[in-house]
């Protein structure tokens, strides 16, 4: 089913979807990067910085996606998500803990009802190289284990080969697999792996495929390749969700992931959100950071604002 009657004819066939996607305005790469760079030079006052730090903390999907993950590591991560700074209980919780499907139950138990979501990667993350039944089983297992959110990967090979309708149908099928027997559903984040899409035009097309297929979030990257979230590719995706809402009334979130490590970086991204999509996206309901090391820097900068001094990296727990 199309996301909205406004695009009812777009997904009826591969040729129709191709015409639509290739009819989108071409991206001015120089202009896009110049605007992203210019917005990154904005300075903010101390009071606004304190607000931005707390907002950024509340937007983090605190993540561990390693082959060596254990239930103990996940429990530690969950504890940090609930109380990022154990010495200051005014510190906001993070938005979510993001883990592999087999660690969802451990994360859910460790959070013990706290207002932190459990996100799970799925669909043969990070490469996405598996048959559709395997991808759907991966998703259903994570949802059955209690995942509140699913971070799926598209088949970049299919997309780059021009099989746009296949990419659309995959996202739609995973969206349906997110629905629980009681009718509630896990929110779906669609990862494009922008570093492998080669061009800004491809990132724009992938964004529209994800939105048309029913994504709740569009996400830049897995964090497992050389090029992940950048101000320019995130700006492009913010423009896409802004334009989609203007045409359909449907709001979709954005999640840059990978390579965002400092408070300065995070604030640049928040400026991008405010100046491009607007205040409606300045909440963890609609904007997330896929990061872990970022949290430590935010905590150190937060303490500096509150006490006038840095505690150093040993003050915060290592993820």
Could you describe the 3D structure shown?
With 319 residues, the chain is α/β, with parallel strands linked by helices. It has helices at 14-22, 29-39, 46-58, 71-82, 104-111, 132-144, 156-160, 164-177, 200-213, 231-248, 263-276, 293-307; strands at 60-63, 96-99, 117-122, 149-153, 187-191, 217-219, 253-255, 289-291. Helix 6 (132-144) runs parallel beside helix 8, helix 8 (164-177) crosses helix 9 (200-213) and helix 10 (231-248) packs parallel to helix 11 (263-276). The longest helix has 18 residues, at 231-248. The protein is globular. The N and C termini lie far apart (41 Å). The model has no long low-confidence stretch (mean pLDDT 94).
Describe what is shown at a glance.
The chain is of the alpha/beta class. The protein has helices at residues 14-22, 29-39, 46-58, 71-82, 104-111, 132-144, 156-160, 164-177, 200-213, 231-248, 263-276, 293-307, and strands at residues 60-63, 96-99, 117-122, 149-153, 187-191, 217-219, 253-255, 289-291.
Mean pLDDT: 94
Tell me the span between the first and last alpha carbons. 41 Å
* Assembly type: single chain
* SSE pattern, N- to C-terminal: HHHEHEHEHEHHEHEHEHEH
> What about the largest sheet?
8 strands, parallel
Order the strands across the largest sheet as they lie in space: 7-6-5-4-3-2-1-8
Categorize the overall geometry. globular
Number of strands: 8
As a percent range, the share of helical residues equals 40-55%
Radius of gyration: 19 Å
* Uncertain parts: none
Instruction: Look at the helices and sheets and give the structural class.
Output: alpha/beta
Number of helices: 12
Q: What amount of the residues lies in strands? A: 5-15%
């Amino acid at each position: 089913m199309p996301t909205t009657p406004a695009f009812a004819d777009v997904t009826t066939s591969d040729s129709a979807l191709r015409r639509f996607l290739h009819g989108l305005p071409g991206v001015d790469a120089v202009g896009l990067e110049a605007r992203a760079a210019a917005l990154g030079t904005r300075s903010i006052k101390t009071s606004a910085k304190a607000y931005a730090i707390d907002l950024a903390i509340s937007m983090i999907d605190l993540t561990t996606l390693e082959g060596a993950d254990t239930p103990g590591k996940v429990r530690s991560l969950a504890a940090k998500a609930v109380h990022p700074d154990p010495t200051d209980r005014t510190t906001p919780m993070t938005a979510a803990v993001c883990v592999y499907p087999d660690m969802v139950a451990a994360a859910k138990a460790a959070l013990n009802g706290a207002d932190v979501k459990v996100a799970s990667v799925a669909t043969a993350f990070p490469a996405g190289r598996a048959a559709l039944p395997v991808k759907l089983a991966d998703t259903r297992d994570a949802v059955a284990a209690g995942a509140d959110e699913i971070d799926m990967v598209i088949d970049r090979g299919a997309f780059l080969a021009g099989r746009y309708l296949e990419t659309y149908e995959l996202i739609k099928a995973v969206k349906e697999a997110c629905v629980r027997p009681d009718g509630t559903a896990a929110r779906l984040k669609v990862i494009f792996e922008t570093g492998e899409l080669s061009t800004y035009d491809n990132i724009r097309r992938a964004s529209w495929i994800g939105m048309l297929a029913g994504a709740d979030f569009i996400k830049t990257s897995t964090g497992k390749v050389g090029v992940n979230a950048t101000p320019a590719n995130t700006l492009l995706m913010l423009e896409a969700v802004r334009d989609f809402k203007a045409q359909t009334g449907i709001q979709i979130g954005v999640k840059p992931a990978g390579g965002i490590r400092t408070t300065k970086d995070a604030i640049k991204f928040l400026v991008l959100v405010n100046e491009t999509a607007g205040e409606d996206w300045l909440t963890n309901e609609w904007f997330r950071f896929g990061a872990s090391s970022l949290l430590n820097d935010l905590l150190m900068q937060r303490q500096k604002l509150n006490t006038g001094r840095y505690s150093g990296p040993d003050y915060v727990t290592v993820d």
